[in-house]
Amino acid sequence: MCGIAGIVGQQITDSSYRSAIKNMNEVMSHRGPDFEGGWNDEDCYLGHRRLSIIDLSDSGNQPFVSSDRRYIMVYNGELYNFKELKLELQRVEFGSKGLPYIFKTNSDTEVVLAAYIRWGIDCLNRFNGMFAFAIWDTIEKKIVIARDRIGEKPLYYSMQNNVLIFASEIRALIYSGLINKKINLKSVSEYVQYATVHAPNTILEGVQILMPGHFLEYKDNVLNIKQFWNVNDYGKNQEELTYKETCSRVKQLLTASVERRLISDVPFGAFLSGGIDSSAIVGLMSQISSEKVQTFNVSFDESEFSESKYAKQIAQKFNTKHHEIKLTPENFLTQLPEALNAIDFPSGDGPNSYVVSKATKQAGITMALSGLGGDELFAGYDIFKRYCELEKKAWLNIIPAKGLIGKLLAAKKKSIQGDKTAEVLNLDTINGFNAYPINRKLFNQKDYINLIKEYYDSDNFIKNIIRRSETDKNHLLSRVSLFEIQTYMQNVLLRDTDQMSMAVALEVRVPFLDYKLVEYVLGINDLYKYPHSPKKLLVDSLGDLLPRDIVNRPKMGFVLPWKNWLKEDLKEFCEEQMVQFSKRPFVNREAVLSIWNRFLNNDPKITWSRIWHLVVLNNWMNTHQIES
Length: 628
Known about the structure:
CATH topology of the largest domain: Glutamine Phosphoribosylpyrophosphate, subunit 1, domain 1
Number of strands: 17
Largest sheet: 6 strands, antiparallel
Structural class: alpha+beta
CATH architecture of the largest domain: 4-Layer Sandwich
Number of domains: 3
Strand content: 5-15%
CATH class of the largest domain: Alpha Beta
Distance between the termini: 34 Å
Radius of gyration: 24 Å
């Protein structure tokens, strides 16, 4: 697990490029404290920061050079099936002499490069892992950059005067000195409404992120981007099995996924909230691993937010070495400046991930497993039920004056949910598809339009994503899974997991996102997945692995007591940031200040998340001196 960077163009011999790649490496030092490497010729500069997980020897350092010195690679990630691929590569013929490949290291890095040399870009279809890598061909003067199927590892890039600049973090591009540090106004509009920017766009002008399951090739000033895997291909009928057979297959795939992700040459552990997903991962780890599993949970004095008692129950059941991280406003405030500085891409949820990642790393753990992805695959969110219910309510479309009814309901409820109901009833055609963007919004339409000076229809970004996510009538839940995977999961959860864990040099692996499991579960009929009870298909697949009171407990999610903190311990900091934000040229000053005051006065339509993500955005712009 590492950080990669590169600059590619024709005859880029100016000393500024050498300085740029050095700066990019330095600003990502937290991603790879074990080794810093660089390589260049007259057309390409590559940088690498290494966090050693597999093959801790110096032979695994990067940039990695092929034995004939034709190919140079920088790689960030883990290839879980590298041992199987290595055996295959040792048996097949290479080059004109037809000899097998002779491996010099025990690393997955060399397997990735050998696979590319043998199979070309088709090697991507053989990889099972999380990765972003770049391979420079010194003869063809071509670079190939690829990103894993689900999007666990990021890759940002920008084209500047026929020079391609890329890196694992957006801040590496910022501090390269080769791009304009200017905010993207359309993206800010989307961020204000959805607390994120959906790929391939980013918060900066002229900077994009390579989409999951895609690769790019750059040669002779021509940039081509192609897709090698599409998650939308799998929400459709597959071979029908009985429910019992389906459960058996799910458990088999999940168990294999966990087992693959336990390959490591460093100490490992798991995040444990005490919910179904993390408990399932810990349970399977305990069955597979010969070592005692180390588990980590964040607890609070505020009992309504703390899941510690459930985590302790799972830790006792599976006899783990359990670490409870007690978080008070005082010690969180102490960590907040470093958590905010660690944010690479603005995110209101980022500090949550930072706290648990830092404590895990301090306990001597370099790799941890997470239960992320279980809700998206197994219909764990309320939005799955709401979508299906709306799909069955076509009769709403024939109600006269349904928009007026919505306004009356909104006035009566006086909540953000009431406003969302009004927006849904005001749609020309009411169905789950059209209502989905409304369910994911932070602000009602009126507050949003008042906030932004130059109005952009931020719904267009998310609508383009869900429009591509077609399924048949037997897979409506899979359609919502596709929505969730390509919006909130990829553009918030996975982005935060990477940036905040790597900020403390911790690698996080996600068993629920093994592509074989994802493909299979998306193809399962709704009848087996409909959420009559919490994630029934997953729970039934696990048999008696989990206690019933863990399965049936109320869903909480990992949320800090922000509402209390923003009005008390963090009030001064937030007020300063909101006042500064109100002076940004792209927002309406009075609207920003009004929202802050409404929050302090307990307006139910202005929750803490609507404040905090604006605070984080302003702080991020200040930290990196981003132009408005």
